[in-house]
Design goal:
alpha/beta; 8-stranded parallel β-barrel
Amino acid sequence: MSRTIIALDFSNKEEVMNFLKDFKEPVYVKIGMELTYACGLDMVREVKEMGHKIFLDLKLHDIPNTVKGGMKNLAKLGVDIVNCHCAGGIEMMKAAKQGILEGTPEGQEPAKLIGVTILTSTSKEMMNEELGIEGEVIDTVIRYAKNAKAAGLDGVVCSVHEAKAIHEACGADFLTVTPGIRLAGNSVDDQKRVATPSFAKEQGCDMIVVGRSITKAADPYATYCQIEEEMN
Protein backbone atom coordinates (compact mmCIF):
# COMPACT_ATOMS: atom_id res chain seq x y z
CA MET A 1 0.00 0.00 0.00
CA SER A 2 1.21 3.48 -0.84
CA ARG A 3 2.03 5.45 2.30
CA THR A 4 2.99 8.64 0.46
CA ILE A 5 0.26 11.06 -0.65
CA ILE A 6 1.42 13.61 -3.22
CA ALA A 7 -0.11 17.06 -2.71
CA LEU A 8 -1.27 18.34 -6.10
CA ASP A 9 -0.93 21.98 -5.10
CA PHE A 10 -1.32 23.30 -8.63
CA SER A 11 -3.54 26.07 -9.91
CA ASN A 12 -4.78 24.57 -13.18
CA LYS A 13 -5.54 21.32 -15.00
CA GLU A 14 -2.59 21.60 -17.40
CA GLU A 15 -0.06 21.63 -14.56
CA VAL A 16 -1.70 18.56 -12.99
CA MET A 17 -1.71 16.54 -16.19
CA ASN A 18 1.89 17.50 -17.02
CA PHE A 19 2.94 16.37 -13.56
CA LEU A 20 1.06 13.06 -13.51
CA LYS A 21 2.12 11.93 -17.00
CA ASP A 22 5.59 11.02 -15.70
CA PHE A 23 4.22 8.57 -13.12
CA LYS A 24 4.37 4.97 -14.25
CA GLU A 25 1.58 3.69 -12.02
CA PRO A 26 -1.42 5.06 -10.10
CA VAL A 27 -0.46 6.89 -6.90
CA TYR A 28 -2.19 8.48 -3.91
CA VAL A 29 -2.73 12.21 -4.41
CA LYS A 30 -4.17 15.04 -2.37
CA ILE A 31 -6.50 17.53 -4.00
CA GLY A 32 -7.05 20.58 -1.84
CA MET A 33 -8.64 23.99 -1.96
CA GLU A 34 -6.32 25.60 -4.51
CA LEU A 35 -6.98 23.05 -7.26
CA THR A 36 -10.65 22.50 -6.41
CA TYR A 37 -11.43 26.20 -6.41
CA ALA A 38 -9.58 26.65 -9.70
CA CYS A 39 -10.98 23.65 -11.60
CA GLY A 40 -14.03 22.49 -9.68
CA LEU A 41 -14.93 18.94 -8.72
CA ASP A 42 -14.57 17.75 -12.34
CA MET A 43 -10.83 17.76 -11.65
CA VAL A 44 -11.42 15.22 -8.88
CA ARG A 45 -13.45 13.05 -11.24
CA GLU A 46 -10.78 13.17 -13.96
CA VAL A 47 -7.91 12.26 -11.65
CA LYS A 48 -10.00 9.42 -10.20
CA GLU A 49 -10.76 8.11 -13.71
CA MET A 50 -6.99 7.93 -14.32
CA GLY A 51 -6.83 5.31 -11.57
CA HIS A 52 -5.26 7.41 -8.82
CA LYS A 53 -6.44 7.29 -5.22
CA ILE A 54 -7.55 10.64 -3.84
CA PHE A 55 -7.43 12.37 -0.49
CA LEU A 56 -9.89 15.25 -0.93
CA ASP A 57 -8.62 17.88 1.48
CA LEU A 58 -11.41 20.47 1.83
CA LYS A 59 -11.57 20.58 5.65
CA LEU A 60 -15.32 20.97 6.10
CA HIS A 61 -16.24 23.05 9.16
CA ASP A 62 -19.79 24.34 9.64
CA ILE A 63 -22.97 23.51 11.53
CA PRO A 64 -23.67 19.75 11.58
CA ASN A 65 -26.52 19.73 9.06
CA THR A 66 -24.55 21.74 6.50
CA VAL A 67 -21.49 19.49 6.86
CA LYS A 68 -23.67 16.40 6.53
CA GLY A 69 -25.12 17.71 3.26
CA GLY A 70 -21.71 18.62 1.93
CA MET A 71 -20.24 15.22 2.75
CA LYS A 72 -23.25 13.49 1.22
CA ASN A 73 -22.43 15.13 -2.11
CA LEU A 74 -18.66 14.58 -1.84
CA ALA A 75 -19.27 10.87 -1.14
CA LYS A 76 -20.62 10.48 -4.67
CA LEU A 77 -17.18 11.31 -6.13
CA GLY A 78 -15.64 8.01 -5.03
CA VAL A 79 -12.65 9.59 -3.30
CA ASP A 80 -10.69 7.47 -0.82
CA ILE A 81 -10.16 9.91 2.06
CA VAL A 82 -11.99 13.14 2.93
CA ASN A 83 -11.73 15.39 5.96
CA CYS A 84 -13.42 17.83 8.30
CA HIS A 85 -12.20 20.01 11.18
CA CYS A 86 -12.15 18.46 14.65
CA ALA A 87 -12.77 21.97 16.01
CA GLY A 88 -16.36 21.63 14.76
CA GLY A 89 -17.06 19.26 17.63
CA ILE A 90 -18.29 15.70 18.03
CA GLU A 91 -21.83 16.27 16.73
CA MET A 92 -20.52 17.91 13.56
CA MET A 93 -18.08 15.04 12.99
CA LYS A 94 -20.86 12.49 13.52
CA ALA A 95 -22.96 14.36 10.96
CA ALA A 96 -20.04 14.30 8.50
CA LYS A 97 -19.72 10.54 8.89
CA GLN A 98 -23.46 10.06 8.41
CA GLY A 99 -23.34 12.19 5.27
CA ILE A 100 -20.64 9.97 3.78
CA LEU A 101 -22.55 6.79 4.59
CA GLU A 102 -25.76 8.15 3.12
CA GLY A 103 -24.11 9.59 0.01
CA THR A 104 -21.92 6.64 -0.99
CA PRO A 105 -23.39 4.82 -4.01
CA GLU A 106 -24.45 1.23 -3.43
CA GLY A 107 -21.62 -1.25 -3.88
CA GLN A 108 -18.95 1.42 -3.43
CA GLU A 109 -16.54 1.60 -0.48
CA PRO A 110 -17.24 4.69 1.67
CA ALA A 111 -14.41 7.20 1.87
CA LYS A 112 -12.39 7.20 5.07
CA LEU A 113 -13.18 10.28 7.13
CA ILE A 114 -10.37 11.94 9.06
CA GLY A 115 -10.39 15.00 11.28
CA VAL A 116 -8.00 17.93 11.09
CA THR A 117 -6.50 18.54 14.53
CA ILE A 118 -4.11 21.52 14.72
CA LEU A 119 -2.64 22.76 11.43
CA THR A 120 1.10 22.20 11.00
CA SER A 121 1.46 25.96 10.42
CA THR A 122 0.28 26.59 13.99
CA SER A 123 2.88 27.13 16.70
CA LYS A 124 2.29 26.95 20.47
CA GLU A 125 2.48 30.75 20.66
CA MET A 126 -0.17 31.18 17.97
CA MET A 127 -2.44 28.58 19.57
CA ASN A 128 -2.12 30.20 23.01
CA GLU A 129 -2.19 33.87 22.08
CA GLU A 130 -4.29 34.09 18.91
CA LEU A 131 -6.65 31.13 19.25
CA GLY A 132 -6.96 31.42 23.02
CA ILE A 133 -6.26 27.72 23.64
CA GLU A 134 -3.99 27.24 26.62
CA GLY A 135 -1.35 24.56 27.13
CA GLU A 136 0.81 22.57 24.75
CA VAL A 137 -0.15 21.79 21.16
CA ILE A 138 0.07 18.05 21.84
CA ASP A 139 -2.62 18.28 24.54
CA THR A 140 -5.15 19.88 22.19
CA VAL A 141 -4.25 17.49 19.38
CA ILE A 142 -4.88 14.46 21.61
CA ARG A 143 -8.17 15.91 22.86
CA TYR A 144 -9.31 16.49 19.26
CA ALA A 145 -8.18 13.00 18.23
CA LYS A 146 -10.15 11.39 21.05
CA ASN A 147 -13.22 13.39 20.02
CA ALA A 148 -12.76 12.25 16.43
CA LYS A 149 -12.64 8.62 17.52
CA ALA A 150 -15.74 9.10 19.68
CA ALA A 151 -17.53 10.50 16.63
CA GLY A 152 -16.68 7.42 14.58
CA LEU A 153 -13.98 8.91 12.39
CA ASP A 154 -11.27 6.71 10.88
CA GLY A 155 -8.35 8.89 11.94
CA VAL A 156 -6.91 12.38 12.00
CA VAL A 157 -4.57 14.77 10.26
CA CYS A 158 -1.74 15.65 12.64
CA SER A 159 1.93 16.52 12.61
CA VAL A 160 4.59 13.81 12.74
CA HIS A 161 5.40 14.87 16.29
CA GLU A 162 1.96 13.84 17.57
CA ALA A 163 1.41 10.57 15.67
CA LYS A 164 2.88 8.25 18.31
CA ALA A 165 0.86 9.82 21.13
CA ILE A 166 -2.33 9.62 19.05
CA HIS A 167 -1.83 5.91 18.45
CA GLU A 168 -1.26 5.41 22.17
CA ALA A 169 -4.46 7.31 22.98
CA CYS A 170 -6.71 6.09 20.17
CA GLY A 171 -5.29 2.73 19.08
CA ALA A 172 -2.89 1.42 16.46
CA ASP A 173 -5.63 1.16 13.81
CA PHE A 174 -6.60 4.85 14.15
CA LEU A 175 -5.21 6.42 10.98
CA THR A 176 -2.62 9.20 11.25
CA VAL A 177 -2.12 11.27 8.09
CA THR A 178 0.77 13.67 8.47
CA PRO A 179 1.57 16.73 6.33
CA GLY A 180 4.57 18.98 6.88
CA ILE A 181 6.98 16.46 5.37
CA ARG A 182 10.20 17.80 3.86
CA LEU A 183 13.30 16.07 2.56
CA ALA A 184 16.49 17.03 4.40
CA GLY A 185 17.70 20.36 3.07
CA ASN A 186 14.34 21.49 1.65
CA SER A 187 12.76 24.75 2.76
CA VAL A 188 10.02 24.45 5.42
CA ASP A 189 8.12 27.39 3.82
CA ASP A 190 5.07 28.29 5.97
CA GLN A 191 5.07 25.09 8.04
CA LYS A 192 6.15 25.04 11.70
CA ARG A 193 6.00 21.41 12.83
CA VAL A 194 7.85 19.58 10.06
CA ALA A 195 9.90 16.38 9.68
CA THR A 196 11.61 14.09 7.17
CA PRO A 197 10.04 10.85 5.83
CA SER A 198 12.50 8.76 7.85
CA PHE A 199 11.49 10.49 11.08
CA ALA A 200 7.81 10.06 10.14
CA LYS A 201 8.34 6.32 9.80
CA GLU A 202 10.12 6.18 13.18
CA GLN A 203 7.16 7.96 14.78
CA GLY A 204 4.68 5.43 13.38
CA CYS A 205 2.90 7.70 10.91
CA ASP A 206 0.52 5.69 8.74
CA MET A 207 0.55 8.02 5.73
CA ILE A 208 2.50 11.17 4.91
CA VAL A 209 1.55 14.08 2.66
CA VAL A 210 4.40 15.45 0.56
CA GLY A 211 4.03 18.46 -1.69
CA ARG A 212 6.86 20.67 -2.87
CA SER A 213 9.61 18.17 -2.04
CA ILE A 214 8.14 16.03 -4.85
CA THR A 215 6.36 18.49 -7.14
CA LYS A 216 9.35 20.85 -7.32
CA ALA A 217 11.98 18.09 -7.58
CA ALA A 218 14.16 17.73 -10.69
CA ASP A 219 12.78 14.19 -11.06
CA PRO A 220 9.44 13.98 -9.20
CA TYR A 221 8.86 10.28 -9.92
CA ALA A 222 12.31 9.25 -8.68
CA THR A 223 11.85 11.39 -5.57
CA TYR A 224 8.45 9.81 -4.92
CA CYS A 225 9.93 6.31 -5.26
CA GLN A 226 12.75 7.24 -2.87
CA ILE A 227 10.27 8.46 -0.24
CA GLU A 228 8.06 5.39 -0.66
CA GLU A 229 11.10 3.17 -0.17
CA GLU A 230 11.97 5.03 3.03
CA MET A 231 8.42 4.71 4.35
CA ASN A 232 8.04 1.01 3.52
